[in-house]
Amino acid sequence: MLSVKGLKANVGDKEILKGLDFTVGPGEVHAIMGPNGSGKSTFAHVLSGREGYEVTAGSVDFDGHDLLALEPEERAQMGLFLAFQYPVELPGVNNTYFLKSAVNAIRKARGDEELDAVSFLRLMKERLKVLHLDDSLLKRPVNFGFSGGEKKRNEIFQMAMLEPKLAILDETDSGLDIDALRIVADGVNALRCAERSMIVVTHYQRLLDYIQPDHVHVLAHGRIIRSGGKELALELEEKGYGWIAGAEAEAA
Ligand code: ADP
Ligand code: MG
Ligand code: MG
């Protein structure tokens, strides 16, 4: 699904990613943890194709395509979803209208028929039900005045509607309360399936109590320095990141 090899990337003239290797198989849920400033969000932004992030080495294969050669919109059309891709507040734009445009743009790019208003409404209702959400956010302007929890709910709903092959959720900067964490975790669990892989970036071990990732990775200083199962997250909770950095130094 995703194969990242030797990825190096700069922000400005500073190298942030320093040779990152990372592989995600179909249907797998991976958690990326790591100290603040280690490059987690940079990695997510590079995958999304965001401006200002310059790749200097390495390769990223996504579902058989050279991801780095694609425009951000093309990446989305191929089934890559980044939660923070749509966090912008759009005061004048109705949330339902916005989602319908996004869904239809992706369908069109895939060669699927665009959904009319009735079919779209039906699909929305079905997905709301799967996620146990109500429709209160849909009539409001996109993210405008949304609380942290509402933004999360909307993000998860966007993911459900866009049906990505690979979803990346960057949860680091948001100071989420326990309810918001539950929304994210329940959403991830409800949308987990054999055709959909997910990468959850977080420094909240608590989130992983609910999600149960297949693999856990530690990113530090622009590289994945340790990978393991969900027990790695527990070990990090207990010992912090220092013990890995220490072990790395000894091994070097
Ligand atoms: P994390 O998400 O792991 O906390 P980031 O990827 O946000 O880490 O940041 C990694 C490093 O890149 C930090 O040193 C940060 O200061 C720097 N950085 C990130 N984005 C920018 C930017 N837009 N301009 C300058 N430096 C940045
Ligand atoms: Mg950070
Ligand atoms: Mg971050």
UniProtKB/TrEMBL annotation:
Pfam families referenced in this protein's UniProt entry, alphabetically: ABC_tran (PF00005)
Gene3D superfamilies in alphabetical order: P-loop containing nucleotide triphosphate hydrolases
Keyword Nucleotide-binding: yes
UniProt domain ABC transporter: residue ranges: 2-246
Tagged with keyword Cell cycle: no
Keywords assigned: ATP-binding, Nucleotide-binding
InterPro entries per record: AAA+_ATPase, ABC_transporter-like_ATP-bd, FeS-cluster_ATPase_SufC, P-loop_NTPase
Family matches, as PANTHER family: ABC TRANSPORTER I FAMILY MEMBER 6, CHLOROPLASTIC
Family membership: Belongs to the ABC transporter superfamily. Ycf16 family.
Protein name, entry field: ATP-dependent transporter SufC
Species: Thiorhodovibrio winogradskyi
